[in-house]
Amino acid sequence: MNCLNIDPNLLSKNIISRRRDFSYNCLDILKEYNLPSEIYYDSFLSVEVFKLKNLWNNIIINWNKMNYDLKEKKEFTESEYSNNKYHQIHTKMNDNDLNEFLNDFINNNHLKCYFVCNSIQKYITPK
């Protein structure tokens, strides 16, 4: 079963060169499935620092929309995911902040990691 909307290797053509260096680790659980987390990290490092909060906010907007859309579904309301509430950030964010927020959000949960990856994919390659 493929949980990602786009093959991560195809994303590399939409990523410009790195603007800075930082060692992200928030998506390292992808390595268990031989998925390239580095492509996502490169995308983080290719955007200007002031846009990192936009990336985070995009993920949270998608999460909140999913919560809203599924609020009537019993399976969802009884799941641990219905209780997770996250908020957008409207202050400056750096690479370390984003990494920490994503680590807290994902919390070693594969489903949430895939959710983040799919949100990033939509952010990088909007239709």
Describe this structure in a few short sentences.
The protein has 127 residues and is mainly alpha-helical. It is 50% helix and 0% strand. The longest helix is centred in the middle third of the chain and has 19 residues, at 52-70.
Q: How would you explain this protein's 3D organization?
A:
The chain has 127 residues and is mostly helical. The chain has one domain (8-124). It has helices spanning 8-11, 37-46, 52-70, 74-77, 95-106, 110-124. The longest helix has 19 residues, at 52-70. The protein is globular. The chain starts with 7 loop residues before the first helix and ends with a helix.
Give the SSE layout.
Elements: H1 8-11, H2 37-46, H3 52-70, H4 74-77, H5 95-106, H6 110-124
Pick out its properties:
6 helices; mainly alpha
The strand count comes to 0
How many separate domains?
1
Helix/sheet category: mainly alpha
Order of helices and strands: HHHHHH
